[in-house]
Amino acid sequence: MSDSQSFFNIGIAAPNFMVICIDDTDEAGDPGRLYSCYSREPARFEDQYQLLLLMEQVMENINYPQSSVALRQYGKKSTTEYARHDRPDKVVEQKELLNHRGERATYAVRVQYRQNATWQGEIVWLEQNETRSFSSELEMLKLMDNMRED
To answer: Which helix (H) or strand (E) holds 145?
Structure first.
């Protein structure tokens, strides 16, 4: 399977297609950058928890895929939280996201579903053109670690 076929098989045209660039590995985590088609600038993260929060924020902003559960929030809620937001405009074509590379590893990710308070989807390790499916956020993170160690 060629590189381009692999990317299209995981749904490069999906609105929530994202590229994760891991730039370092240390005791504190795996710092890097997250790219989506809704920003020209990467979202930077210091660890895997921040990465998950950034990915969730992208999916919430575009409302795709829709979450099957509403996560509880504590504290004062504003009335605008309940208003439906329009999907932001794409500022970068999804194919362009594939031009970015991490110093340690690069992954293309598409979350297909957000069910049972977690994510299900596919991830491709771009350097090795290796595709894996995941059924939770934790499994996605473990796959990222295992792909680099294999």
So the answer is: helix 137-149
- Asked if 22 and 105 count as a contact pair (C-beta separation under 8 A), the reply is yes
Amino acid sitting at position 70: A
Alpha carbons 13 and 147: distance in angstroms, whole number: 24
Is the whole model's pTM more than 0.90, yes or no?
Answer: no
Domain positions in the chain: 3-69+82-149
Give the amino acid at 144: M
Number of residues that make up the chain: 150
pLDDT in tens, 42-89: 999 999 999 999 999 999 999 999 887 776 566 665 444 444 567 899
- 119-147 confidence digits (pLDDT tens): 999 999 999 999 999 999 999 999 999 98
For residue 123, the cross-strand partners are: 109, 132
Count each helix (H run) and each strand (E run) in the chain, helices first: 4, 6
Residue 2 in tokens:
């060629």
